[in-house]
Structure formats: C-alpha cells, structure tokens
Amino acid sequence: MTALTIKNLNVWFGAHHDRVDAVRGANFEVQVGESFGLVGESGSGKSTILKAITGLAPTWSGDISVEGTPLSGAKRDRAFYKTVQMVFQDPYASLHPRHTVDQVLSETLQLHGFKDIDTRVVKLLDDVGLGGKFRFRYPHQISGGQRQRVAVARALAGEPDILLLDEPTSALDVSVQAEILNLLTDLRDEHKLTYLMVSHDLPVIGHMCDRLAVMKDGEIVEVMDSEDLRQGTAKHDYSRSLLAASAAA
Amino acid sequence: MSLLEVENLWVRFPTRQGIFDAVRGVSFNLERERLGIVGESGSGKSMTGRAILRLIRKPGIVEADSIKLEGQNLLDLSEPEMREVRGQKISMVMQDPKFSLNPVMTIGDQIMEAYLLHNNTSKAQARVKAIEMLEAVSIRDPERVMRAYPHEMSGGMGQRIMIAMMLIPDPQILIADEPTSALDVSVQRQVLDIMDGLVKKRGMGLIFISHDLNLVSEFCDRVLIMYAGRIVEVCDADKLHEAKHPYTQGLLNSLPRLDQPKKYLEVLQRDEAWTKEDSVRGTR
C-alpha cells in the first residue's frame, strides 16, 4: 500500500505578476514503512511539498493522497493529524518558550483526544530518550538536541503513521545529529513509521532513506534508490553535480 | 615573527552561578596561512575569533598574556586605536549575510561607505573600487548589484558581498566565522574558492571558524580542534582523518557517510577528563 501519493503537484505563492511557482508537476509515491528523501538546494521547493501536504501552503493543484484518502485545499480533518505529523527544522523556534515540556506534550495529547495524559507524557518522554527529569523544564533549560527530541515526542503524541521531517538535524552539531538520526531509526522500527524527509545534506539522506527525489527549481529531476546515490550512478546531470559538490565538501 | 600571536587567551562571563569560562587559556599563532578552528557549538571557537578583535562586550571579560599583531599587542591599544585595526588590518566575515548587511541601504552605498571611511578619496573613485571588488568576488553584473538592496540578493551573493566589503581596506588577516554555514553546498564551494583565491593572491592570513570538519580538512592548512574552551588537538588539515584525540575521532565517526552505509551512527561518548586537560599550544 502507498502511504503518500503525490501526482502532478503544483504549488504557487502570490498571484498574477507576483506569482512564484515553487513546485511544478511533482510526482512520487511513498510506500508504507518506507523512508523517502527529498534533496535539493534552498529554494528548490522541497519544503514546500511538505507544506502543501500539511495544508500550510493553501494554493496548490494536483493530487495528494494519504493512505488512499485524497486531500483538498488547506483544511485538514482530525483523522489527518492522527496519521501525519511534522517535525520542523529549528527546535529553537518550534517550541513555545513559555511552555514547559509537560505543557507542550499534554496540550497536544488533549487535542488528540486522549484521556490518560499523565501516563502518555511519561511514555513519550521515554520513547525519545528523555527521562522524567526533563518533564517540567522550559525549552531554554534544555540543549538543542533535547529540544529536537521534545519536538519528535510532540509529533509522536497522536500515534501517527507518517512523519514529515523538515531538515530535522541541520540546526544541530554533528555529534547531536548522530543521536537524533539514531533515535529516528529506532522510532521507525518500533512504531512502524513512514518517513518523508527533507534535507540538503546528501549523506544524511543516504543514511536515512531508501529512496530519494532530487529537486531543482521546483521540479523533481530524478527519483532514485539510495544505493544508486552511494554508487554515484545518478542519471541526471544536476544530481551528479550535487553529489560531486557534497563529496568534495 | 608571526602575523598574529595569541598567548594564554581567556574569555569569561560572570553569571548568577559564578564565572563561566568560555575560552580557557588558548595559545596559537597565525602565519600567512589558512587556519581552521573547529568544534561544537559552545566550544568557544567564535568567542576566540571575537576576542582577537576585542569585540566581546561587557560584562564579558577578555584576558590574555598578549594578542600580538605583527608584534603590536592589541590589548594595549585604546578603543579608537583598536577601531583602526578593525577592518584595516583584521576583518571579520560573520555567519549570516542577512544579519550583517544594512537592509535599508543599497549594496553599492554600503561598500562605498566602507571604502570612504578608510580612504580619503572621491565618491567616484570609491564607486570604481566597489565595482572592482564585486568583480573580484565573481559577481556578475556588478552595476545592477550596486543599485540593489540586500533582500534582493540570494544568500550566496550576500555572503560574497560581505567578503567584498571586508577586502576593500586590504586587511592582513581575515577572520571568517562560519562564512558558509547558511549556504547550500553548491554555493558553498564558490564562496570558498573565492576566499581561497584572495588569500593566495594577497598573501593574507585566514582564520576559518567552522563546525564542519570535512570542509575544514579540505580547505585549511592547519586545524585547531576546540572542546569546552580549550584546544584539544592541533593537526595538519589533510591529516585530520588521522587525528588522535578521542573527541576529534568521535566527531568524525558521527558523520554519516555515503560510502559506508550502516544502520546506526556512532555516538560521541564524552569524557569528563577532556575538559580538564591542558590546552594544546597551536603554535608553530
């Protein structure tokens, strides 16, 4: 079964002469349990695809379906949020500075309609490798890696099937990045999750994903297996130049 | 005599919990070379760069036995004298061009301002020089860029403009604090190539501060690895992958690699002893 189907997706911002076509004619499918990567330079439209899926970019056309259910417009129902959740790039910006970890998680759990909030908060913190001592801390009292763990815990609160990961480690140090990527690997096994991961870092995508799409100027230029990425057998010129640039750096 | 000699540098910040030492007794020198400083966030690498230019604001405290620029101890200079050094002799490029360019001034005006401040010449002359500088950092159509505002520029162009501005007074030392971290890999290369060319052509000394080990090992001549405010290891950049300190090895091993797929990445195991070791001297 496919977890996500994107067919002929166009996303644009603005109207008339101000119109910017951020994504043009994107097509790809993500199977259940798969980890799929989107790579490209900034401005290539990779994050915009995630925004269109979650309803944060209201102006789009084409077909997006989640587990067989087609989406439309910018409105998403409760069932959608139970299926799809997102982790954002910068944990410094995505957590409320005046809410404790406990508040962040219990509010989310309440919105998902759970009753046993107390036990679930403990369980969530446990799942992401944070002990109970972090429960009543504010975001400024914990490190960047720990914040990103809280953001992941919040995404997991509704027991979703699909996680959209928008550059989840690019604001973190390499040593912390390794911890978060390992955590994501574990969580995917434990919770049978499907990942759609956006990154500009090819080695990270190669490490985390089974397949990936390379984007340039709003278009997907190539969909390939990570194995091809490792072997350096990209077909499209642009993918090859991206690979060369990241191998050199 | 070295271009720059830093002897026993400390940067301290008083906090409610007592004094926090951000940089703890660091010594190194810089010749006409590309010196990399790497470490995680909080390791004191940026503070070291800022301390050299005496850019640490109160209540921060900078202490050192000496910071010598061609024999001249910068700590003895008065603030107006220091202002002569900043820009003229030592320039700094910051991480994000979005925050270091003035948003309400055209690029041309900003570059010309930098030039006119340091040289007693006409505006027309400054304009010629500014265009020349933009060309030096490979900006196509410099006439158009001169009239543009920073928000009309991409990140890579913004960073090249910053470098152009820093190079106008022809400094002897360029301190680049994460100059390419906000840029894409493909643009990163261009900016590095430009900096490399300029360092070679003008015989400048470059201090390149970065958290990206691979980038530093490829781009620099020598690398200082910092941890918790100290230099834990000094090595030649091309031998970084043979580094001996467990911290450096840990950082290198935690990077995902395309040629070595594995299920789990290695996680850096920190050792309390690393923070207690004496700082390694980064001189030669």
Automatic annotation (TrEMBL), chain A:
SMART domains: AAA. InterPro entries: AAA+_ATPase, ABC_transp_ATP-bind, ABC_transporter-like_ATP-bd, ABC_transporter-like_CS, P-loop_NTPase. Signal peptide: none annotated. Keywords: ATP-binding, Nucleotide-binding, Transport. Residues 6-242 form the ABC transporter domain. It comes from the Bacteria. Pfam families: ABC_tran. Gene3D superfamilies: P-loop containing nucleotide triphosphate hydrolases. Belongs to the ABC transporter superfamily. This is ABC transporter ATP-binding protein. It comes from Aliiroseovarius halocynthiae.
Automatic annotation (TrEMBL), chain B:
Keywords: ATP-binding, Cell membrane, Membrane, Nucleotide-binding, Transport. This is ABC transporter ATP-binding protein. It is a peripheral membrane protein. One of its GO terms (biological process) is peptide transport. GO terms for molecular function: ATP binding; ATP hydrolysis activity. It is found in: Cell inner membrane. GO terms for cellular component: plasma membrane.
